[in-house]
């Protein structure tokens, strides 16, 4: 079992072309995985798709569904992978260097879920915490864990 920390690796990678390629590839792959889960598989389970754009609209008071979709896409493709590289991974390398990468990736996905459904939905948009733990909440958890696993897996593959 391989741990997620390389003892000689710096806590954060250099900001170069390889980083941006890894970020975009990881974000696109993870976002595509999320979308397949959210729009194709989740409806079979809970009767409808996950609608992150609706949450973005609530948080920012947007009337444009298109703008909300663009914001959610940009966050997933750019900012979440950067969050892994510059926040989550350095913390994990410092605190839990003994854990395998996939356990840390699952934790990253759970962290994204907490950010989405507690911080953004509850604290900012004023919705019930974790949307009251309805079935959509659990579908969202699985989607965020899938996102975390794919995002981290692609960044590991790109060796950034």
The mean pLDDT is: 93
Let me know the number of strands: 0
Structural class: mainly alpha
Task: Note the beta-strand portion.
Answer: under 5%
Task: Report the C-alpha radius of gyration, rounded.
Answer: 16 Å
The backbone outline, from C-alpha atoms, is globular
The number of helices is: 5
Low-confidence stretches: none
In helices, the fraction of residues equals over 70%
> What is the H-and-E element order?
HHHHH
Terminal CA distance: 20 Å
Biggest β-sheet description: none
Explain this structure to me?
This is DUF1440 domain-containing protein. The chain crosses the membrane at residues 20-46, 66-87, 99-124, 130-155. Keywords: Membrane, Transmembrane, Transmembrane helix. 73% of the residues lie in helices and 0% in strands. It has 160 residues and is mainly alpha-helical. It has a domain at 76-160. The longest helix has 31 residues, at 65-95. The chain is globular and about 45 Å long.
Task: Please write out the topology.
Blueprint (H helix, E strand, L loop, with lengths): L16 H30 L5 H9 L4 H31 L5 H24 L10 H23 L3
Helix pairs in contact: 1-3, 1-5, 2-3, 4-5
Organism: Albimonas donghaensis
Keywords: Membrane, Transmembrane, Transmembrane helix
Protein name: DUF1440 domain-containing protein
């Amino acid at each position: 079992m391989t741990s997620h920390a390389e003892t000689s690796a710096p806590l954060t990678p250099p900001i170069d072309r390889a980083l941006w390629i890894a970020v975009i590839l990881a974000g696109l792959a993870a976002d595509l995985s999320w979308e397949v889960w959210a729009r194709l598989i989740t409806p079979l389970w809970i009767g409808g798709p996950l609608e992150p754009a609706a949450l973005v609209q609530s948080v920012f008071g947007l009337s444009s569904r298109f703008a909300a979709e663009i914001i959610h896409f940009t966050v997933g493709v750019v900012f979440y992978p950067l969050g892994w590289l510059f926040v989550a991974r350095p913390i994990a390398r410092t605190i839990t260097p003994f854990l395998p990468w996939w356990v840390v990736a699952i934790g990253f996905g759970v962290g994204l879920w907490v950010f989405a459904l507690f911080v953004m939905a509850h604290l900012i948009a004023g919705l019930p915490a974790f949307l009251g733990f309805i079935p959509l909440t659990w579908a969202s958890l699985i989607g965020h864990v899938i996102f975390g696993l794919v995002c981290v897996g692609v960044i590991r593959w790109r060796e950034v």
